Amino acid sequence: MSWLTGQVALVTGGAAGIGLAVVERFLAEGACVGVLDRSEGDLATIGNADGRLIAVTGDVTSYADNVMAVRETVDAFGKLDVFVGNAGIFDYFAPLVGFDGADLSSAFDEIFAVNVKGYLLGARAAVPELLKSDGPSMIFTVSNSGFYAAGGGPLYTASKHAVVGVVRELAYELAPKIRVNGVAPGGTVTGLRGIEDLGQGQDVLSSVPGIADIMSTTNPLQYAQQPADHAGLYLLLASADNSRAVTGVVINSDGGLGVRGLNQPSGGTELATGAMRIDVGST
């Protein structure tokens, strides 16, 4: 049996990037999925997945739109078992001293409205239906910027640190009924867009020249991650059968940023090329 057979999930920001990869993985594992996004995006490439997928066009910063997404998902599939808060925007590394006071204030409001308030509004809208489920789960997309500096500018980094707090607080408040966890992807080649108030609304992260090379040099695995690389962790956390005792946890999926130390790791590379000799001793 697939891990999510008979389960129903709602994913915000599920029309592209990591959200779309999660939607595709959930569908492959037997779930029915509702998606809340500003546009249907790449969902057209999936089709209706034999009637197991619906798209709701709306704004995650609107409580009414989050309620609408929950209602339409439940109307279509009869219940809600999993809520995934994933919609987000980026600040494209805009530094503090690059702002004047007015720009900083408006940009802060915009990024926190999507990256933090949007998660809380979605969670609040989902709670009544999740409480009816047997083994419900909430999962939030964090980021390596929820733990480390230089994964974005101060606005993005602050917003993702805030999401870590959201995960922990909601895990406490909603226990023992609802499990709440997060996934913290590292640098991933996606269509993540920027802050509209800064003129970044049409910027796409994956279009930055050399972005994959930049990402691959920052983690010990020397790998630029793709959206599908993270989807299995959302699947694990969504499945009550496979993560029943897990709550209040953020799983880092970042190529090992936490162990990169002060120097670039080279042992694995040298082993692979034969430059490092291993003395296995005598038997």
TrEMBL record:
Q: Which Gene3D superfamilies match?
A: NAD(P)-binding Rossmann-like Domain
Membrane spanning residue stretches: none
Sorted alphabetically, the keyword list is: Oxidoreductase
GO MF entry, a single one: oxidoreductase activity, acting on NAD(P)H, oxygen as acceptor
**KW Disulfide bond (keyword) present:** no
UniProt superkingdom: Bacteria
- Name the PANTHER family on file: BENZIL REDUCTASE (PTHR43008), CHAIN DEHYDROGENASE, PUTATIVE (AFU_ORTHOLOGUE AFUA_4G08710)-RELATED (PTHR43008:SF4)
User: What does the similarity note say?
Assistant: Belongs to the short-chain dehydrogenases/reductases (SDR) family.
Protein's recorded name = 2,3-dihydroxy-2,3-dihydrophenylpropionate dehydrogenase
